[in-house]
Write the structure tokens for this entry.
Amino acid sequence: MRCALTIAYNGTHFLGSQVQKETPNTIFGNLEKVLFQLGVDFRVIASGRTDKGVHATGQVCHIDLPPFWDDLVKLRIVLNQMLPPSIRITKAKEVDSDFHARYSAKKRVYRYLLKNDSANPFENDFVTCLANLDFQKIQENIKIFTGEHDFKQFMKTGSDVNSTKRMIYKSFAYRHKEYIILNFEANGFLRSQIRLMVGALLQLDSKEISQQLASTAQHKIKPAPSNGLYLAKIKY
């Protein structure tokens, strides 16, 4: 039986989501270890990777279960008992045998949390706190990213991809209480693309962002910190 797992995690103390040979301290490294202990010898296939320090409220992966694991409610309970408390399985459901967590995904939604404040020891792992944020400027400039663009100047160097074009269906900012929330929905994202887009919103003006996007000029951008970034939802 093929099973899709929806996962939430606090990525603060993990070295990213992807399994790595050099370290077991990743999200899916921990999940595969627990699954193996439960008799599930299957490589976890995720909708995509998140970097060190990035969080998720709606990451999705799929696994193929042996016949004796036919009770998905029990599987979710047991997984949550055995996984570190910073990783939670929020849903486990049976899917068609041709479902693929990555290739079946139609849209991916990320959110980035900002707060117009100095460093806060109780929120620093989850929110990027910066003084003198210009919400109106951010709210206006984030719209520039909407549409299909070549994001070759908004990706980490060394990325191996067939195309750097991506379609962003929605990119907007709004306030929620004392927070500024940036929302991005696209058919896919390049490595570090969102952190570089947020960095551009914090460091460049509208003309410079447009130039960077059109590759008519190149401006140095420091990626926004990973702690404010969340993989919110995968749409199938």
About this structure: The CA atoms of residues 76 and 89 lie 6 Å apart.
